[in-house]
Amino acid sequence: MTDDGSRVQPWAAGSWTTPPVAATDDGTDLLVTAAEGSDAWRHTSYGFVHDDAHALLGRLDGAVEVAFDVDFDQQFDQAGLMLRAGAETWLKAGVEFSDGAPQVGAVVTLGRSDWSVAPVPDWAGRRVTVRASRAGDAVTVRARADDEPFRLVRVAWFPPDAEVQAGPYCCAPTRAGLVVRFRRWATGPADTALH
After folding, report:
1. pLDDT tens across 94-111, in order?
2. Is the CB of residue 26 less than 8 Å from the CB of residue 153?
3. Which InterPro entries match (predicted)?
4. Which among 115, 141, 152, 160 is most buried, taking Cβ atoms within 10 Å?
5. What tens digit of pLDDT does each residue of 123-180 get?
């Protein structure tokens, strides 16, 4: 238990939605190798459904926080956290490499996916922490690089009665060989304020 009431989760506390090519403990870190073509998306604009991202999930009651290194630079390489209630109800948030730069963003899927991103080129090569807090009918997503202040990424509607699991995720839609170093996975009470 940390000072803010959060609890660091052991990697063994979660179950994979789709097992990665490899997942190896490296000290307190977890190195995850994503399968080529893995992704999470439903319908919108692209017309396809992918539900084979590598998400390591456990029960969520309030907030989840995942830290990882942004050490990837191929189109659509991505890592962060996922909240999942089912195949058609989920949220992923983190950093995705797109159009030549890291982008912080989120995909909310309620039958169909949407996508919002903002470029963060200065986050390349740094440790990023993504936090999602669920309260009532909303999930509030924040992110930061290293020890900078958290910035608001998204406030999204999410079904208030849904049973949700959450934890780290990654995928590699366009290539083989993506390895993500996850530094930390923690859960705790929901945030008390939006700002």
Report:
1. 999 999 999 999 999 999
2. no
3. ConA-like_dom_sf (IPR013320), DUF1349 (IPR009784)
4. 141
5. 999 999 999 999 999 999 999 999 999 999 999 999 999 999 999 999 999 999 999 9
Rounded Cα–Cα distance for residues 16 and 183 (Å): 17
The b/e string for 45-68 (b: 16+ C-beta within 10 A; e otherwise) is: eeeeeebebbbbbbebebbbbbbb
**φ, ψ of residue 41 in degrees (nearest 5):** -170, 150
DSSP SS3 for 163: coil
Residue with the two structure tokens 């690089």:
145
Q: What is the CA radius of gyration of the chain?
A: 15
* C-alpha–C-alpha distance, residues 50 and 25, integer Å: 27
Joined together, the tokens standing for residue 155 give: 């406030």
Beta bridge partners of 90: 84, 109
Amino acid at 128: V
Q: In this structure, which amino acid lies at residue 157?
A: W
Write down the pTM of the prediction: 0.94
Task: Strand 165-171: give its sheet, edge to edge.
Answer: 15-16, 54-59, 165-171, 78-86, 89-98, 101-110, 116-119
